[in-house]
Amino acid sequence: MQVALGRSVSDEIRPGLYKVSKLLRGDAGLFLTNMPRDEVESCFNKFEENDFARTGTIATEKVELLEGPLDQFTHEMEPFLRKQGMPVRLNKGVVELVSDFVVCEEGKPLSPESARILRLLGIKMATFRLNLICRWSPEDFELYKEGLDTNRT
Questions:
Q1: Which residue ranges does the record assign to the Large ribosomal subunit protein uL10-like insertion domain (predicted)?
Q2: CB 3.0 to 4.6 Å from 114: which of 20, 110, 126, 147, for a disulfide?
C-alpha cells in the first residue's frame, strides 16, 4: 500500500499522499470517503465495540470460578481446560471444577491462558476503537496524532 501511494514526493500519485504512506504501519488502514470531515470525525469518535481481551491486556475486573460443575463446557473441553491451568475433572460426563479458580485479577495483565478462558466464558474485557491518525484531501494534509514520525523512510 505504501508503494502504491508513494513513499516520497518524487513517486507519490497525488500531492501529499506520501505523508499518509509513511503512517501505514502495523494496525493501520485507509478509510476512503466523500463524507464531510466533521461527520467522519464524529463517526470515529463514537465507534466503540466490546471485544475479547488479548494477552497482556489489563483485566477490568476479577473473575473467579467457584468449585463445582461447569455446565457451560462439554466433556470434550475438559483436557483443554486442564491445559489452561484449571483444576477440572470429569464427573459422570460433566466438567467439574475441583476447587475455586481465579481466572484473572483486576488491574493485572492477562496471561495467554486467562485470555483463552475469558473467551470461552464469553467475557469481553476490551474495547475496540478506531483512531484517526491523519486526514488527506487534495487541498491539505492534517496529522491528528502528534508525535508520529512521518519522516521515516
A1: 53-123
A2: 110
Q: What's the pTM?
A: 0.71
Q: How far apart are the first and last CA of the chain?
A: 14
Exposure b/e, 113-149, CB count within 10 A at least 16 = b: bbbbbbebeebebbeeeeeeebebeeeeeebeeeeee
Give per-residue pLDDT as tens, 54-112: 999 999 999 999 999 999 999 999 999 999 999 999 999 999 999 999 999 999 999 99
Domains of the chain, each with CATH number or no CATH:
2-47+129-143 (no CATH), 63-127 (3.90.105.20)
CB 65 within 8 A of CB 103: yes
Other Cβ atoms closer than 10 A to 6 = 20
The C-alpha atoms of residue 112 and residue 114 are separated, in whole angstroms, by 6
